Amino acid sequence: MRNFSGKIFSGELDLLQDSFYLTQVKNLQTASNLSEGKLMQLNQYLSNQGESCMITINDQIPILLQEKEVAELLVDLASIMNALKTS
After folding, report:
1. What pTM did the predictor assign?
2. How many domains does the chain have?
3. 3-state SS, residue 67
């Protein structure tokens, strides 16, 4: 596994399983395993949002992302997916 620390997402890249183990969103701790397909779905969802959007952690904790944070998360997701594809 390889550590990843972005502006919004932090966690570990599992290059063997083509997945990302999410450990932190902004300043909130979590534990979620995201497949490459889920990462692509999230990327598509965020790309279609307007100024701000809401995401949930562990299907319980809503987090409002402002426009700048959405853009930062899109950069994080692109970096994560690129790392998984080049493994």
Report:
1. 0.93
2. 1
3. helix
